[in-house]
Write a structure and sequence with these properties.
alpha+beta; 235 residues; elongated; 5-stranded mixed beta barrel; OB fold (Dihydrolipoamide Acetyltransferase, E2P)
Length: 235
């Protein structure tokens, strides 16, 4: 049986039995029914466990946030009148859980994964692996990936060649203030410089016959604002 992502669940799957895997984003116990919100890299969806299915209901009762689970169940439509109350990315459907497997349990996390909470940056960086679980952060990565793919697809259609030029080179006398990186060699007071405008590499490619090329370059800047630069920007 194919494993689906939450965003792949749609009308053609209504009534089908599917497998889902992910993290527990939240849980609500309404007595004879337990609702959980399952999160994966593509989004969120609600899963319902009924007490009539004793095995899965008992297991669902011990679930906590950030438990990693595998679920098998049937896809059903949700009540459209309740959609306004939900913040699920895929709120038109839910899963009637029939089988539940706990892949890994989790202690209480030192920072909340829920997007509604704000956490100081120092704590986010300390627990970066948890910070990157948040939907907001994952959407940033996914958007960047889509933008890069769109750029590549567009340029490749016109026979552009993607190249990668060095980031560390000799200090040049042009461009912005050099961004220096110390070396780990035996040479004292030695530095690499991140090229501000690697013109030499562009010229090398042109001489070599690459008439169409592109590079999605990484930008490292350590530059103080200059009055003349600010004036030029506002002209």
């Amino acid at each position: 049986m194919k494993r689906y992502y939450t965003s792949e669940i749609n009308f053609p799957l209504l009534g089908s039995q599917i497998h889902l895997s992910g993290w527990i984003a939240s849980k609500r116990n309404h007595g004879k029914v337990i609702f959980i919100v399952l999160r994966d890299i593509k989004g969120l969806i609600q899963v319902v466990f009924d007490s009539k299915n004793e095995d899965s209901y008992t297991l669902a009762n011990i679930l906590k946030n950030e438990y990693v689970v595998r679920i098998k169940g049937a896809v059903v439509s949700r009540d459209y009148q309740k959609l306004q109350e939900d913040d699920l990315l895929n709120s038109q459907f839910e899963i009637l859980g029939e089988q539940l497997e706990i892949i890994n349990s989790s202690l209480a996390t030192p920072l909340p994964i829920n997007n509604y909470y704000t956490v100081e940056e120092e704590k986010r960086l300390r627990y970066r692996y948890l910070d990157l679980r948040r939907m907001k952060m994952q959407q940033i990565f996914l958007k960047r990936s889509r933008i890069s793919r769109t750029i590549r697809d567009f340029l490749e259609r016109d026979d552009f060649v993607e190249v990668e030029t060095p980031l560390l080179t000799k200090v040049s006398t042009f461009g912005a203030k050099p961004y220096l990186v110390t070396t780990k060699s035996n040479l004292r007071n030695s530095f690499y410089s991140l090229p501000q405008s690697p013109q030499i590499f562009k010229q090398l490619l042109m001489i070599s016959g690459f008439d169409r090329y592109y590079q999605i370059a990484k930008c490292f800047r350590d530059e103080n604002l200059r009055a003349d630069l600010n004036q030029n920007l506002h002209k």
